[in-house]
Every structure is written in structure tokens, then in C-alpha cells.
């Protein structure tokens, strides 16, 4: 017969039920669990027509790093702008094309030729629909 006593769980983890253990766990866990944008500087957007609207309207609902890290073609940016307007972004109708062009030129899809980076001058801006999807 084995006369050794099994170790109690509290003996293996003395920090489990202590205030110091709880604080230590928070100090060790929170920095890795917290989203990086809270600790990072917000991205600086390049100057250009449409920048102010992008900063205010895009930044109203999500971090601007989502915009700066996007890898979208001009057509994709037009679709995104349309979608964001449908979801409540307040982009004046006469500024929609400027915002689309700003996004396409400032944050282009990697691998596109320079001639493919801008929206055609004759292209129509995305229109916000009042119909549901």
C-alpha cells in the first residue's frame, strides 16, 4: 500500500486563491488578450481629397488601420464605400467619387499597375440604396 499522501491542488498552485495570484494573472494575460490597436499609434492617412471624410466616417465605426491595411482594387473600394454608406456612413453624394478615388489611390491593391490604380473619370460613384438587401 502506498502511504504517500496525494498533494492537494492548492499546494501545487498556491497563487490560485490569492489576490497576488489574480493580479499576476491579469498582468501576464491582459497585454496578450488586449487588441493591438489600443497600444499602437493610429495610422496617419495621406493627404488628398476625401481624407477628411474617410477619417471621420470610416473612423466612426472601426479603426482606420482596417482601411490602411486593406488590399483592394478600385472596383473593390467602390463596393466597400457603397456598403458602408448602406450601413450608415454619412458621405455626401457629391463626395462619394472623391472618397472612392482617395481610397483606391492611397491604399491600392498590391500588384496592380499604376494605370489600374485609379477609378476611371467616367465611372459612376456607388449610390446608397434605400432598398434592403
Word description of this protein:
This protein is mainly α and 133 residues long. The protein has two domains: 29 residues, no CATH class; 66 residues, no CATH class. Helices cover 44% and strands 0% of the residues. The chain has six helices and no strands. Helix 5 crosses helix 6. It is elongated and about 85 Å long.
Name its key features.
about 130 residues; mainly alpha; disordered C terminus; 2 domains
Query: What does the overall shape look like?
Result: elongated
Write down the Rg: 25 Å
- What is the first-to-last residue Cα distance? 73 Å
Tell me the total number of β-strands. 0
Which structural class best describes the helix and strand composition? mainly alpha
Strand content: under 5%
Helix content: 40-55%
Question: Would you kindly provide a brief summary of this structure?
Answer:
The chain has 133 residues and is an all-alpha fold. Helix content is 44%, strand content 0%.
Annotate the secondary structure layout.
Elements: H1 9-12, H2 19-33, H3 51-61, H4 65-68, H5 74-86, H6 96-106
Helix pairs in contact: 5-6
